[in-house]
């Protein structure tokens, strides 16, 4: 029985990844971007940036899932869907990719805690940039309004990371 399982594992490894495995990361990021269209009556800016969390989860999980320059179209798509000023998410997503690359260069090893800390810093940076752009455009929101989205994003990232991990394992096996 154990030999049959071993033979099945070897056969599956020879087959390679599933057909269209290269499409899983971009499609999940696009679907996460579309989550802002879900009608939710939440006061303030409580809705987390699921597209950013998914992008960073893929980047931290598998650095070769997509080229780095894809942060620009992902950010542009998110700007168009969410109603942010065009270019805001492009900058945020690009900075997120740069910070993820720097973490790969600087850290010899990463654990779930260090990845979580990286994501928390990225989310604070993204929310602060969005708050600053809103302030420049005339919004009168205190800086404290970013904390609900930061806390929800920080609590939600481990779940997204596990889902991306399971999806990555699924896409690379037959």
Automatic annotation (TrEMBL):
It is a multi-pass membrane protein. It is found in: Cell membrane. Keywords: Cell membrane, Cell shape, Membrane, Transmembrane, Transmembrane helix. Pfam families: MreD (PF04093). It comes from the Bacteria. The chain crosses the membrane at residues 21-42, 86-104, 116-139, 145-164. The keyword Cell membrane applies. InterPro entries: Cell_shape_determining_MreD (IPR007227). Belongs to the MreD family. NCBIfam families: shape_MreD. This is Rod shape-determining protein MreD. It comes from Sphingomicrobium clamense.
């Amino acid at each position: 029985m154990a030999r049959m399982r071993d033979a099945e594992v070897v056969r599956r490894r020879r087959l390679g990844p599933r057909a269209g495995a290269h499409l899983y990361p971009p499609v999940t990021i696009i679907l996460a971007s579309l989550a802002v269209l879900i009608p939710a009556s939440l006061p303030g800016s409580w809705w987390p940036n699921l597209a950013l969390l998914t992008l960073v989860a893929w980047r931290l999980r598998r650095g070769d899932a997509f080229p780095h320059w894809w942060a620009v179209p992902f950010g542009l798509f998110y700007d168009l869907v969410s109603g942010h000023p065009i270019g805001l998410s492009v900058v945020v997503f690009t900075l997120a990719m740069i910070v993820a690359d720097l973490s790969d260069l600087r850290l010899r090893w990463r654990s779930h805690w260090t990845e979580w800390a990286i994501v928390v810093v990225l989310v604070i940076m993204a929310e602060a940039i969005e708050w600053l752009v809103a302030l420049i455009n005339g919004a009168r929101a205190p800086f404290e309004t970013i904390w609900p989205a930061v806390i929800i994003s920080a609590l939600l990232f481990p779940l997204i990371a596990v889902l991306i991990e399971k999806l990555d394992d699924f896409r690379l096996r037959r």
